[in-house]
## 1
Amino acid sequence: MCYVIITSASLVWFLCSLVADMLFAVALVTPKWLLGPAQAANPRRQSSVGIYTRCKVMQEGGFHCGRFDLDGLATDSSVYPGEWKAAMFFVSLGFILLSVTVLLTLLTCCRQSAFGKSIHNMTACAQVVSGISVMLALFLHPLGWRAARVQRLCGPEAEPFYPADCSIGISFYCAVIGVLLTFAAAGLSLKAESSNMRSRVRRSVESGNKLVCIP
């Protein structure tokens, strides 16, 4: 017999995990980790760089965005710094793990354990690993600011953890907020598990209700 159990704690857990996953996706694909100096001719357009993408103001006045990891992780380190390759790996790992946990949060509505283990506990562990992975990427990306690509964008004074004339972009902050929400979601998973085991839930299930919604 399959029962669907929805509590306020499990709903908040799901939403927190989903928002964090979306923020990781934004941080991964958008070229806004570093923003170059504003252009006097067109202050609304700024050259910028992400983990594997960049936007550039062209000399003729155009604006072009695209990837610079043309050969993936095999791209020459003078074009794609090794620290950013590692950051790409860890952000991707964190995003994939968190995406899986988002699906698992839905599974816990009708199943509490798998292979003799609590799905909530397994999901919480995966979310902690996901958060740590993206934290490593947040540390690795600034290590690559000594690269020639960054110095052309931000000035020759750019070095690890000092962006010179550049500023931190929205993509970086999305990753930071995503990490915080991921750790919060890991804690909420334990609260969601205890709320699913409450006596009110058990009584509703024992009375034959297949859909149990408890605030």
## 2
Amino acid sequence: MERGLGGGGAATPEMPQEEGPPRLPPDSLEVEGHSLKRSKWGVLFTGIVGGALVAVYAGATPFIAPALRKVCLPFVPATSKQIENVVRMLGHRRGSLVDIGSGDGRIVIAAAKEGFTAVGYELNPWLVWYSRYRAWREGVHGSAKFYISDLWKVSFSQYSNVVIFGVPQMMLQLEKKLELELEDDARVIACRFPFPHWTPDHITGEGTDTVWAYDVGTFRGRGKSLEN
């Protein structure tokens, strides 16, 4: 039998004390609090940036993405110098005008202001709607019309003036299409890239602002003379 240290009675056994969770020093708690705050702000910042990028992409994509076409014709807005050169090539001409792949409507609106009955064909519906709004804002919606259509499915035989901001891959095929459809008194105005086989009657501008004008009667006459 065990004896107590202090007397003759039995010693009362000591109960083990339960240990609580370890206590962190105050400095550690402060650091952990700052880390949690930084983590929350990081998540919030990432969400804001991500949402902004999605919004920009959704708003800009209809304007900068090429519409689905037989040949890709991306939307690149015409510069003020290019518009000026196109208008110069239309000097002293009358009749109807068509812009093939009219984009945001700048050429059509400029032509309407010069007195032309102008039409734009564009496959991208967002750009067509925006062009119609611009024509209304500029006060020429009565003489500037825009249609959603694939250029390869449209006949241009009714137009006396044709404007095209093309790409090299499409110019040969378009050259054949226009030569079959247009009347002899029509004029074709090419911007940025010339047609591969036609000889231009007039050229103005330089670099990316260069504009080539082709009179249908001229190159048709040259073709007939070569055949003879």
